[in-house]
Amino acid sequence: MSISLDDITAVILAGGMGSRMGGIDKGLRNFKQAPLALHALMRLSSQVGSTMINANRNIGVYEGFGIPVICDQQADFAGPLAGMQAALNEATVPFLVTVPCDVPLFPLDLVARLSEPFLKDPTLMLTVAATGGRHQPVFCMMRSEVLPGMEEFLRKGGRKIDAWYSNIPHAAVDFEDEAAFHNVNTLEELRALEQKA
Predict the structure, then answer these.
(1) Domain that includes residue 189, residue range
(2) Which of 71, 145, 148, 149 is spaced 20 to 30 A from 168 at the CA atom?
(3) In angstroms, what CA-CA distances link 48 with 8, 24, 141, 193?
């Protein structure tokens, strides 16, 4: 038994300011001759039924990827949780998977493994990837019903993903390869990861 891919959509979160990378749009920085966000899209495309990108600038460039582009409903680059909110408002299927744009080598079985706990526990609202006992909160899978609680959390000024989901039924899914979740925050880190990959 498994969750149908048609019941899962994914959002690539590329709506940040890229402040640690000099304010540039991180999702459009090249990694091995292709934008980081495009790497995420290529890794996700076979894992879910549909995909979208959350971006708050360079919309036309992202539209060139051939999938829907959605913007935050919150002002002032409110963080990845605002991107998740925007995606949930657009989603028409039961499950949403979220990944950041700056982790080009995340696992190719990410969605399958995040899906498994939902099959065993119908009360679960969210699963989150974990490595070495530490949650990777931007890599998660959630039921669409979490939207009202998320919006209430954002209205009250909440921004941290793990603080939000700590109040709903959730489960961590352990992944052994910690390097697969390595994100790039600087141009130096980007070049170093290119050398290793």
Answers:
(1) 5-196
(2) 71
(3) 5, 29, 11, 26
Give the pair of three-digit tokens for residue 5: 């891919």
Output the six-digit token pair for 94.
């039961």
The reply to whether 197 sits in an annotated binding site is no
Q: What is the pLDDT of residues 95-129, one digit of tens each?
A: 999 999 999 999 999 999 999 999 999 999 999 99
109 is in an annotated binding site: no
CA dist 33 and 144 (Å) reads: 35
- 53 beta partners: 12, 69
The CATH number that applies at residue 101 is: 3.90.550.10
End-to-end CA distance of the chain: 34
CA distance 169 to 124: 5
Does the annotation flag 13 for ligand binding? yes
pTM of the model: 0.93
Is 14 annotated to bind a ligand? Reply is yes
Q: What does the block give as tokens for 21?
A: 């990378």
Q: Name residues whose C-beta falls within 8 Å of residue 61's C-beta, 6 or more positions apart in sequence.
A: 28
- The amino acid that residue 159 corresponds to is R
Domain count for the chain, please give it.
Answer: 1
The 8-class DSSP code of residue 1 comes to: -
